[in-house]
């Protein structure tokens, strides 16, 4: 078993005994069989000496127990690594960043503490999963939706603290943005509440985000300054209806006005669902089916505009497609779609297709039907209705670039500007980079539209059970991160194996941001016990080894 | 404790050609440790082998549940509530995704993947990679002789999986079959249940 670095076996044994006194013997896990369960199922270092593994795990049931564990860890200099449901697959899972850390498993803290239907808010503990919160709301017949990620088995606290996103309205899709108030156990065991929670007896902890003075909530996201033990969220009132409509645009350059119009409609609140962007011409299936198109795409730059346009004209295939989504009263959303069509009509040759309108809530039969299951050719996916699902694990993700999807993937996910030009440029740059590096790359990628005001350009690097292949993949990943940063595209989230590299790209003014993080770390957690290395924030005693 | 070579050789000594029903019944032999009480056998109805596996499981008195790849509804509406009350074992033949999800969800309730067999279906053979209790590994050797009846053999095997610790490592076994086309992705037979306390 890996001991925490710098910790003797005796100290570790003493601390483990004290952990058992704090939480109960049954909730401290030290056997290999139990600790192995905290390995990252999608680790990019699987089976290698550098694979990040825990030394033990402790599962407290209450805030008081968390405080005890943190104080014991501090006294004995034991690094701990809090997880909520441990399902952050693709971004690190349940394994610590620093091997030998003790995982602080918060799954037992699984109470939905409050749901306020009148103002659409909730307060939850870290072990509450999206499924748990959804069930809580459904069982009580509340007319509220939760914006869920896909898959939906993670926790609102864990997902939002890692800046995860969802699929409904923009102000709920950004899960950290939609939080309101948190409670945190600091590295010295003190209990802190943010926002209005700092006022004893506050009646607006989940209603008003700011409280007084600096808004410090962000310090606890993608960081290691404390253990979040409660978090409030704003929920979505159940809408009356849901409507989709789609459009295609025929020409290469149409992407630019298409995105500009879409952005205007979203920023104005006209289009209030999560839009989908696609390319009938560039999708991987089209390229795989037609050797002529595949040959064009294999050229440097992916083929010239003239070549692609000639091909598209010849085959009658539009370059771009978009699906718009609207939540609200039926009359209103029909008019909002009509207005959107008027705006998009500025693109010559645009074609529209009216999609279905669904009255809400969905019936039990609709939820079971193929209509809302994309794997079965459905129009929709359950997350668009605030319903968590694990359906994506049944989708065959197999491709020439990813022949064995079961070993997982690591997401490369830089933020790019919300313009058609940026989509085209990012595709050109990354496709060229993939070709030069000899990386497998499945053609054109349309961005994900989680966020208002920007796009995420996301693609997955496959993980295998072959260490040599994984090492090669990590090399590609590092190169792509650098190339992205050189073009002004920074990652929004990344895997632990790349935390340092990604933080290093945020290097403005001699890495002022990283230095500021370290100043805070030294002040708040001088013994560096919480999540050492998370997002590249290392405690002082480990910093020199990371240089 | 038998090593890998010993139990493969023991399997090669099995010469009886199994009938469809016979393969299942033959595999369901008693072992020293009591077997898991399997609450339900889950199978992916999109593929022929799991359908046969399920039929054989039913002939052994087990309840079955069909999925089309997505196990969400089964877990949300049945297993989640059941597992909050008590740790009950389930078994299945599915692709990797449903097994992976159910394994992780079951872990939250103190259960583990206690038996797993991966079936890579190639043109004229099926390559099985098996891990779990020794008794199951021994009986998996019967796969070399099972021919096309291997799904039925797996049904008998999961019906009688003993509550025993798993051996570390995995073993490979090959079944020769008639040419029927390779499968895109492997299938998995699995048992999830409370771990042995031995």
Outline the secondary-structure elements.
The complex is a heterodimer of chains A (547) and B (198).
Chain A: H1 9-23, E1 28-29, H2 32-35, E2 56-58, H3 63-76, E3 80-83, E4 102-105, E5 112-116, E6 121-124, H4 130-139, E7 144-145, H5 156-161, H6 170-173, E8 179-185, E9 191-193, E10 227-234, E11 236-237, E12 241-249, H7 255-267, E13 276-278, H8 284-289, H9 291-297, H10 305-315, E14 320-328, H11 330-344, E15 351-359, H12 364-368, E16 409-412, E17 415-417, H13 420-437, E18 454-456, E19 459-462, H14 467-486, H15 499-505, H16 508-524, H17 540-546
Parallel strand pairs in A: 2-4, 3-4
Antiparallel strand pairs in A: 1-2, 5-6, 6-10, 7-11, 8-9, 8-10, 12-14, 12-15, 13-14, 16-19, 17-18
Helix pairs in contact in A: 1-3, 13-14
Chain B: H1 4-12, H2 20-27, E1 38-44, H3 48-59, E2 64-67, H4 72-85, E3 89-94, H5 96-107, E4 112-121, E5 125-131, H6 134-140, H7 143-146, H8 150-159, E6 171-176, E7 187-193
Parallel strand pairs in B: 1-2, 1-3
Antiparallel strand pairs in B: 3-7, 4-5, 4-7, 5-6
Do you know the CATH architecture of the domain at 112-237 in chain A? 2-Layer Sandwich
Q: Give the SSE order of chain B as H and E letters.
A: HHEHEHEHEEHHHEE
Mean pLDDT figure of chain A: 93
Strand content of chain B: 15-25%
* Largest sheet, spatial ordering of strands of chain B: 2-1-3-7-4-5-6
Which CATH C-level class of the domain at 112-237 in chain A is it? Alpha Beta
Radius of gyration of chain B: 16 Å
Report on this model:
- The complex is a heterodimer of chains A (547) and B (198).
- Chain A is an alpha+beta fold.
- Among the domains of chain A are: 9-105, Uridine Diphospho-n-acetylenolpyruvylglucosamine Reductase, domain 2 (2-Layer Sandwich); 112-237, 2-Layer Sandwich (Uridine Diphospho-n-acetylenolpyruvylglucosamine Reductase, domain 3); 496-546, Vanillyl-alcohol Oxidase, Chain A, domain 4 (Orthogonal Bundle), CATH 1.10.45.
- Helices cover 33% and strands 16% of the residues of chain A.
- Chain A is built from 17 helices and 19 strands.
- Chain A has a five-stranded antiparallel sheet with strand order 5-6-10-8-9. Chain A has a four-stranded mixed sheet with strand order 1-2-4-3.
- In chain A, a hairpin with a 4-residue loop joins strand 5 and strand 6 (121-124).
- Chain A starts with 8 loop residues before the first helix and ends with a helix.
- The mean pLDDT of chain A is 93.
- With 198 residues, chain B is of the alpha/beta class.
- Chain B has one domain.
- Chain B contains eight helices and seven strands, in the order ααβαβαβαββαααββ.
- In chain B, strands 2-1-3-7-4-5-6 form a seven-stranded mixed sheet, with helices on both faces.
- In chain B, helix 1 (4-12) crosses helix 6 (134-140), helix 2 runs parallel beside helix 8 and helix 3 packs across helix 8 (150-159).
- Chains A and B meet through loops of A and helix 4 and helix 5 of B.
